[in-house]
Amino acid sequence: MMYMKSGFRFNEHNRDTNPRFESHDPGMMWDPASGKYYSFCTDSYITSKREQGVPIRVSDDLVDFRYAGTALSEAAIKEASYNGEGMSPVPGFWAPFTEYSGGKYRMYYSATKAFGTDESKIWLAVSDKIEGPYENVGVVVDSRDQAFKEKPNAIDPHIVDTPEGDKYLIYGSFFGGIYAKKLNPVTGMSADNNPRNFGTRLAYKPEDSYIDGPEGPAVIYNPDTGKYYLFFSYGWLGDDYDIRVGISDNVLGPYVDKDGVSLLGDSLGTKLAGSYEFTRYSKEPMGNNDRSTSSRKGFDGKPMPEWEYGGFRGPGHGVPFYNVPRKDYFFVHHVRDGAMPLSHYSEKEHRRTFFMHYMMIRRMLFIDDWPVFSPEDYAGEEAGCDLYNGNIQGGVLSGVSDGFEWVVFDNCNNELIRASKDVTMYNVKGYLMDAYDFENSKECKVFTGYTDDNRAVWGRSM
């Protein structure tokens, strides 16, 4: 096994020394000009000085990152933050997606009139350089002051290209659900130049759902399977957020879950990741570094009690991407520190908020056309893996000598899942591969796949 190291660190609330901190709704792309990886995210600041204009992070290896400032020009910020005469300007921009197309870098980003509303705009800004400055071209979708029955929300943009050369903007959240809108592949703007044309609806929440969503959509086409994959999130952003998927033969759907049920009001999709906690039994510093427990400050910046590992809360708003140098797939998303001193319970809302969020990067593989994620953050491991088709009895994976603990995700329950060694199920199928045990700072084996009743299952060697 090659040497690995984790670039992920909990409880270090300094963006300069821990660049993955404060990364919310992260995107990811490989830049063909520099050969580096770039992540653009929401204007989100907890302990850092607020800088409106889309934060940038850059990496050579998808493990170690550095903060590289903000992307938008002052003129673009002023134009997109305008909320109307006499109104306070938009305080920050949401969920950018950046691509390299036609010799230019195109950034799609959202400006919402107020948090939690469906009055938003998706802007396109372009630059000759990946780190900007980006200048606005125009509004691609506008859901401000709308009177539409479906109530789409022009937020959370993502771009997908079809093998036929068509380009679509994927967007939407809560309210009317997830949409796809055709773009002009040359200009990147609406194909019909009408920002009030919302396109085709791909997914919306079932009437009997107890969790909020869907939001944070992204679609990719996998030429190896010939399928389109719609990724999205359900749940409360501060605690029970998750990552789900549906697949289709057509970019415009219909998208279905692993049981073949439509995402158009019938299914929440197949869950790939939710709040979870693998066991931490080591006393060594987490993440192969000695800084993860050195900064003992709460979300308000004040000294806090001794930090204790509490698992990962609310992974979500993720973006799949193809890693060109490695020729394989990854998935980047934000996740929250599950330590109780970094949370707050609202008696009024009857839910808990975990405040400290970070960027996490996972390997993504496909089995029988369906995607699966590595249970651990990417730590530089090689691309190899072994297909496994067998069973689990009493926590033991048949034919494998390593002892594992297991997380089995429930498609209808978004509570925290704690790993267990005492799990019995039959006919699991997935992959065994090398990974880095973040919780215990050592190399390990992991399993990722599905149970025979279509639930995502993760295993990690003890």
Would you kindly provide a written description of the structure presented here, covering whatever features stand out?
It is a single chain. With 462 residues, the chain is an all-beta fold. 2% of the residues lie in helices and 40% in strands. It has one helix at residues 74-80, and strands spanning 29-30, 37-40, 55-59, 65-70, 94-101, 104-112, 120-127, 135-142, 158-161, 167-171, 178-183, 200-203, 215-222, 227-233, 243-248, 270-273, 276-277, 312-323, 328-337, 343-346, 351-354, 357-367, 370-373, 386-393, 396-397, 404-408, 417-418, 425-437, 442-450, 456-461. Strand 1 (29-30) and strand 2 form a beta hairpin. The longest helix has 7 residues, at 74-80. It starts with 28 loop residues before the first strand and ends with a strand.
Sequence-ordered SSE layout with sheet pairings:
Layout: E1 29-30, E2 37-40, E3 55-59, E4 65-70, H1 74-80, E5 94-101, E6 104-112, E7 120-127, E8 135-142, E9 158-161, E10 167-171, E11 178-183, E12 200-203, E13 215-222, E14 227-233, E15 243-248, E16 270-273, E17 276-277, E18 312-323, E19 328-337, E20 343-346, E21 351-354, E22 357-367, E23 370-373, E24 386-393, E25 396-397, E26 404-408, E27 417-418, E28 425-437, E29 442-450, E30 456-461
Parallel strand pairs: 17-27
Antiparallel strand pairs: 1-2, 2-3, 3-4, 5-6, 6-7, 7-8, 9-10, 10-11, 11-12, 13-14, 14-15, 15-16, 18-19, 19-22, 20-21, 22-23, 24-25, 24-28, 26-30, 28-29, 29-30
